[in-house]
């Protein structure tokens, strides 16, 4: 089949990204919610890998389209479904509404990214990947800190930030990327360790994302992301 001749190495990482997002939905449907959020974090790592490989001049004609489709699954549909499955009892209606609003914001964000000229060095609006990581890291905190209505409010805020025109810096520097890689890896691996490790590392990841969310307001110097 000719389509396989156009698939590059980054596209394989993109397909892994989508597969992890779908697996997160399956895990949540079976009641394994912590695993579902960890799988979303793994999808975010795969998304970063395919972006890195694409920048190494390994991109294919399918790359940009595949990336957006995979991101919709892993960082739009998957978080929305997992949250809905988790709170579909007494909070079924608000959970469904929040899931729809969050997904709509994510789809609009990706559509704008795919059609707009890339004339600025920053992201316009919060990337959908970051939004999904915020949700996942929050839901992996110590249970006493997780409140459904705080989660719903946060998802509404994330939906707004994704469709906003606030500039969010891209991580390019070696030190910034190394820090993020270590933190993601530690959080994912800690799922296999005693539960307290997962809570601790997810707390570190969540707090780091909170700083990133506030970066347009705080005007953090760009060198912290580029060095």
Q: Structural class of the helix and strand makeup?
A: mainly alpha
Distance between the termini: 43 Å
Based on the coordinates given, report the CATH architecture.
Up-down Bundle
Secondary-structure element string:
HHHHEHHEHHHH
Query: Which sequence of strands runs across the widest sheet?
Result: 1-2
What does this structure look like?
The chain has 227 residues and is mostly helical. It has a single domain, classed as CDP-alcohol phosphotransferase transmembrane (TM) domain (Four Helix Bundle (Hemerythrin (Met), subunit A), Up-down Bundle), CATH 1.20.120.1760. Helices cover 73% and strands 2% of the residues. It has a two-stranded antiparallel ribbon. The longest helix has 26 residues. The C terminus is likely disordered.
Keywords summarizing the entry:
Four Helix Bundle (Hemerythrin (Met), subunit A); mainly alpha; 10 helices; disordered C terminus; two-stranded antiparallel sheet; 227 residues
């Amino acid at each position: 089949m000719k389509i396989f001749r156009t698939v590059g190495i980054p596209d394989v990482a993109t397909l892994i990204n989508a597969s992890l997002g779908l697996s997160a939905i399956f895990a949540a449907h079976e009641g394994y919610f912590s695993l579902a959020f960890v799988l979303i974090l793994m999808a975010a790592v795969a998304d970063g890998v395919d972006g890195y490989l694409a920048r190494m001049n390994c991109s294919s004609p399918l790359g940009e389209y595949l990336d957006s489709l995979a991101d919709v699954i892993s960082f739009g549909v998957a978080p929305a479904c997992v949250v809905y499955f988790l709170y579909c009892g007494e909070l079924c209606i608000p959970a469904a509404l929040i899931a729809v609003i969050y997904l709509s914001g994510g789809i609009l964000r990706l559509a704008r990214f795919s059609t707009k000229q890339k004339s600025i060095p920053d992201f316009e609006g919060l990337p959908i990947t970051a939004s999904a990581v915020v949700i996942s890291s929050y839901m992996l905190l110590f249970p006493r800190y997780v409140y459904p209505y705080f989660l719903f409010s946060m998802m509404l805020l994330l939906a707004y930030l994704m469709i906003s025109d606030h500039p969010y810096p891209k991580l390019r520097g070696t030190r910034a990327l190394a820090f993020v890689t270590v933190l993601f890896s530690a959080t994912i691996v800690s799922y296999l360790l005693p539960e307290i490790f997962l809570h601790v590392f997810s707390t570190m990841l969540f707090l780091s994302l909170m700083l990133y969310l506030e970066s347009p307001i705080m005007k953090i110097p760009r060198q912290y992301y580029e060095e």
